[in-house]
Amino acid sequence: MKSALLWLSLAAALTAQAQSPQVQPQTRPAARVDLQKLDYGLQPRQIAEDTWVIEGAVADFSRANGCNIINTGFIATREGVVVINTGPSRLYGEQQRRAIARVTDQPVREVINLNLHPDYFLGNQAWDDTPTRALEGSLQGMKAEGEAYEDNLYRLCGDWMRGTRATPAREVLAPGEIKLGSHVLELHRLQGHTGDDLVLLDRQTGVLFAGGLIFANRVPTTPHADSKAWQQSLALLAQWHQQGRFKHVVPSHGPVHEGLLGMEQTRDWLQWLDELMQTSAEQGLDLSELLRQPLPQRFAGWAAQPAEFNRSLVQWYPDYEQRALTPR
Predict the structure, then answer these.
(1) What is the dihedral angle through the alpha carbons of 223, 224, 230, 236, rounded to the nearest 10 degrees?
(2) What pLDDT shows up at residue 327?
(3) What phi-psi label fits residue 41: left (phi over 0), alpha (psi between -120 and 50 degrees) or beta?
(4) Domain-by-domain residue ranges, the chain?
(5) What span, in angstroms and rounded, lies between the C-alpha atoms of 121 and 10?
(6) How far is residue 12's CA from residue 17's CA, in Å, rounded to a whole number?
(7) Cβ count near 217 (within 10 Å)
């Protein structure tokens, strides 16, 4: 967990630097703020039968977007609503509840957090009357790192985070199936983006909630990542698509899409980054030289640059250097 906490500190610093060289780290604001004026403008969009997505900004955390860079969703099954992810703050969770209530009067049956990262679960605080569930590893990660997440998102997004306290999922979710009305929800535990990546596949509609395993038009984040395991999970998802098991892909970050777009982009980035670091380490380049590496044109328009590229290099490159120096 220490490496992840170090990454969080680096992430905050790099993001602040990328946004403005003059910005200094912020502490939690002391002045009273009218939270009624902070509106995420959440607009559920129906993407399939009984299925809605609330899309976040395709960007990095910032005050401009209130740290709302995640896609959350919900499925109104006629036997209750299943909510997927709760956003980056208590305020988001409260506004998410109201947005869902505008669409359906069905009661919310449960909330599912797809992994341990802050924008997947910091809105849980607004769902304290509803079962919230996550895989065991994710739940333990939320408990271990929640306070650090709070501090860093307060630093990055200020008043949007007011009143937010990390509230981990309260129940362990086991992989398997949930049948609600005509919907059979397959819950799969994969790995790569984190140690416990929950993927939800609705067999009725062919909608895949892929969590952090798939990024679209955005550089992947890697604080808990294992590149090899991640690419293996992407290969499995590609097999599912070939088998016709899903059509619509809801990544946690990036536009909702059909087919293999996000999978191919994510795999391409991971493979390129691995090759870059391995070759650079063998050539004896140091980290400062690598941080000046220009990106291939195919990645240049993706969101969250250069912060995510820099973060991944800072996190991973020392291991590549060490391996290059170790006699074989």
Answers:
(1) -130
(2) 80
(3) left
(4) 2-20+39-325
(5) 21
(6) 8
(7) 17
148-171 as b/e, with b when 16 or more CB fall inside 10 Å?
Answer: bbbbbbbbbbbbbbbebebbbbee
Q: Is the domain covering 2-20+39-325 a CATH 3.30.70.3190 domain?
A: no
Say if residues 114 and 144 touch (Cβ distance below 8 Å). no
In the block, tokens 């502490």 appear at 27
- Taking the CB of residue 178, how many other CB atoms lie within 10 A of it? 18
Closest Cα partner for 167 from 154, 189, 150? 150
CB 76 within 8 A of CB 107: no
CB-based contact 124:111 (threshold 8 Å): yes
DSSP 41: -
Tokens of 294: 């220009």
Query: For residue 178, what are its two tokens?
Result: 């949930």
pLDDT digits (tens, 9 = 90+) for 116-172: 999 999 999 999 999 999 999 999 999 999 999 999 999 999 999 999 999 999 999
Full DSSP string of 66-94: TT----EEEEE-SS-EEEE---SSHHHHH
Q: Residue 124, exposed/middle/buried by CB under 10 A (0-12, 13-18, 19+)?
A: buried
**Prediction pTM value:** 0.89
Tokens of 66: 């209130």
